[in-house]
From TrEMBL:
InterPro entries: UPF0047_YjbQ-like, YjbQ-like_sf. Pfam families: YjbQ. The chain crosses the membrane at residues 107-133. This is Secondary thiamine-phosphate synthase enzyme. Keywords: Membrane, Transmembrane, Transmembrane helix. It comes from Rhodoplanes roseus.
Length: 153
């Protein structure tokens, strides 16, 4: 046997709540939006369901990563720069030399997340946080759509 299921809880979807979160990034790196996501679920009255997050840009992405040691995020930026360096001879450079590598990094990481909500709480692991990954060198204002689907209090 590979694993054990906990008790199964079923509920009808009684609410869909949506908002737009605007995030000011400081340039390449990670911005923690976990607290904003929690506040949204709370404001929506979310009890059991799913929080969907969607990045409305093609040069920034969303990820769930370790929230304890900031060195992890530093190393992730380094790894992404190795995978898609600015000096790789990209054809698309209309918005600057960091634009095409940013598109590649977004394609690798992705623009959407789904986080279970259980008992009004995001079901993240102990060391997990939700992050906007900015792939451009300069600061940007990024829009993230948040949507809770599920049962409310």
């Amino acid at each position: 046997m590979a694993g054990t299921l906990s008790s199964i809880r079923t509920a009808a979807v009684t609410r869909v709540a949506t908002t737009t979160l605007t995030v000011a990034t400081r340039g390449a790196g990670f911005t923690d939006i976990t607290d904003e996501a929690r506040r949204f679920v709370e404001a929506a009255g979310g009890r059991h369901g799913t929080l969907l997050l969607f990045m409305r840009h093609t040069s920034a992405s969303l990820t769930i990563q370790e929230n304890a040691d900031p060195d992890v995020r530093t190393d992730l930026v380094t790894a992404l720069d190795r995978l898609a360096p600015t000096d790789a001879g990209w054809v698309h450079d209309a918005e600057g030399p960091d634009d095409m590598p940013a598109h590649v990094k977004t394609m690798l990481i992705g623009v959407s997340l789904a986080v279970p909500v259980v008992g009004g709480t995001l079901a993240l692991g102990t060391w997990q946080g939700i992050y906007v990954a900015e792939h451009r060198a300069r600061p940007h204002r990024r829009e993230v759509m948040l949507q809770f689907l599920g049962e409310t209090a």
